[in-house]
From TrEMBL:
It is a multi-pass membrane protein. GO terms for molecular function: ATP binding; ATPase-coupled intramembrane lipid transporter activity. The keyword Cell membrane does not apply. The chain crosses the membrane at residues 21-44, 70-91. The keyword Ion transport does not apply. It comes from Papilio xuthus. It is found in: Membrane. GO terms for biological process: phospholipid translocation. Residues 229-306 are annotated as: Disordered. Residues 240-249, 257-266 have a biased composition (Basic and acidic residues). This is Probable phospholipid-transporting ATPase VD.
Length: 487
């Protein structure tokens, strides 16, 4: 309802000052006119009706009050020059000239987008020269709002990701589609993913990448592609085979949700959709990385593993950057449903049962995803601010490897923050099914309508997102826009 109203009128200091002065001029005018009208009436009241025969050029009025009213409006006409109406016209003409010079300012022209300054308010231009302090948010205003995965730490080991080459446009991509940001994989992290000498750290690295892929709300979408070009001919591009055709159906014989969405899209399309054996041109080729298996050492990427979806839809650029980083290491988020997530891991398709997704909020400063493993255990992945996640970790014994990794991670988080990176901490918690069911029942009771419901829900989520084990942390860069000074 608030957005249905018109825009708020903005009034400058000069305009407010001028309005105040005009009001004073009107009050003075009314005072003078009233004084003249009262004086006229009093003069007529004391004027002798016999003097008109003696005094020339003076007429006698038998209604002094009526004559006073006429004199009041006469003075209004005579003294109305006190109201500076022409001042408004002069100021408006001056503002129009100011707006013209602002539009023609060469220093405020952006050659990249071929746009010039656009002045939307004509009545506050004079305020620009009186600004002492300018307050602005950072994301999207001073920065490009394009998050790029730069650094991460797993088990206290730092992995740097320097800027890679810009994404090259593919001939299969429409000109309006921008390829996803390229993330240059860290060679040492690739080695640690297949290092058999330190199996514990290798497991942490792989679990960290799995968290990047699943602990988010990113949705994989397959956009509609016109098979018919504007000229009327069929597009000749050859697209890789759709991997959804090779996926097995569910055991209950029902159709997959992706097939339902695809059929729904085809039924609503007004132009022919590509057949099921083809995929959207919004795919890029990524190299396969060896993971230690015999079949994975081949340098030639396979058709089913190197064709990655290039279109992710995320609620925030941060989640998109993390999903792209996982994709660069071969952990591909293939599909997401309310109760299931499908991930491509080391050339294999793994499906996880999603039990609960708790969205991020400003009070908890984190989000969590609960999934059921094939072993039956429930694992909770938590991602959030360091102030929230680090305080929920399980107490560690002094001098242990976990304590050393914790201290190293905190130091790296401070280093990431000094470098201007947006930091997130990743943690997990493994729960037995009985413990999960117990918490689920307690949370259902806490969610019942009643007094203190919000407080009970916060306490219930705090019990769930506790006793965590540290997995790692990330540093995402939000680059400053051009010409923005660094502090």
């Amino acid at each position: 309802m608030l957005n249905n109203g018109g825009p708020r009128y903005k009034c400058s200091k000069l305009e407010r000052k001028m309005n105040t002065d005009v009001i004073w001029c009107v009050l003075v005018l009314l005072f003078l006119c009233c004084a003249g009208a009262v004086g006229c009436k009093l003069w007529y009241d004391h004027y002798s009706p016999l003097l008109y025969k003696v005094t020339p050029f003076i007429t006698y009025a038998d209604k002094p009050a009526y004559e006073g009213l006429l004199i009041f409006w006469t003075y209004i006409i005579v003294l109305q020059v006190m109201i500076p109406v022409s001042l408004y016209v002069t100021i408006e003409m001056t503002k129009l000239l100011q707006v013209y010079h602002i539009h023609q300012d060469v220093e405020m022209y952006d050659p990249v987008t071929n746009t010039r300054t656009e002045c939307r308010a004509l009545n506050i231009t004079e305020e620009l020269g009186q600004i002492n302090y300018l307050f602005s948010d950072k994301t999207g205003t001073l920065t490009e709002n394009k998050m790029v995965f730069r650094r991460c730490t797993v088990g206290g080991v730092d992995y740097d990701h320097p800027p890679g080459p810009p994404a090259e446009p593919s001939p299969d991509l429409p000109p309006i589609v921008t390829p996803i940001t390229k993330v240059s994989p860290n060679r040492r992290m690739l080695q640690h993913m297949q290092d058999n000498n330190d199996a514990q750290h290798t497991q942490k690295v792989r679990e960290f990448l799995l968290m990047l892929a699943v602990c988010n709300t990113v949705v994989v979408s397959q956009p509609h592609v016109d098979a018919m070009q504007l000229s009327g001919s069929q597009s000749g591009g050859h697209f890789p085979t759709d991997r959804s055709a090779d996926r097995p159906a569910r055991s209950n014989g029902t159709l997959r949700s992706n097939d339902k969405y695809a059929r729904l899209t085809e039924s609503r399309s007004t132009t022919p959709s590509p057949p099921p054996s083809t995929t959207s041109p919004l795919r890029i080729r990524l190299p396969r990385f060896p993971f230690g298996g015999r079949d994975d050492t081949s340098s030639e990427p396979s058709t089913s593993a190197d064709c990655q979806l290039a279109r992710f839809e995320a609620e925030s650029p941060d989640e998109l950057a993390l999903a792209e980083a996982a994709l660069a290491y071969g952990y591909e988020l293939r599909s997401r449903a309310p109760d299931e997530v499908e991930v491509g891991v080391r050339g294999e398709v793994v499906r996880y049962k999603v039990l609960r997704v708790q969205q991020f909020d400003s009070n908890r400063k984190c989000m969590s995803v609960a999934m059921r493993l094939p072993t039956g255990q429930v694992i909770l992945y938590v991602k959030g601010a360091d102030s929230a996640v680090l305080g929920a970790l399980t107490p560690m014994r002094a001098g242990s490897a976990e304590a050393a990794a914790y201290e190293r991670t905190r130091a790296l988080l401070s280093e990431y923050a000094r470098a201007g990176l947006r930091t997130l901490v990743m943690a997990k918690r493994t729960m037995q099914p009985a413990l999960w069911e117990e918490w689920l029942a307690g949370h259902a009771r806490a969610s019942e309508i009643g007094e203190g419901r919000e407080k009970r829900i916060r306490e219930s989520l705090a019990r769930l997102e506790s006793a965590l084990s540290l997995v790692g942390a990330t540093g995402v860069e939000d680059r400053l826009q051009e010409a923005v000074p660094r502090t």
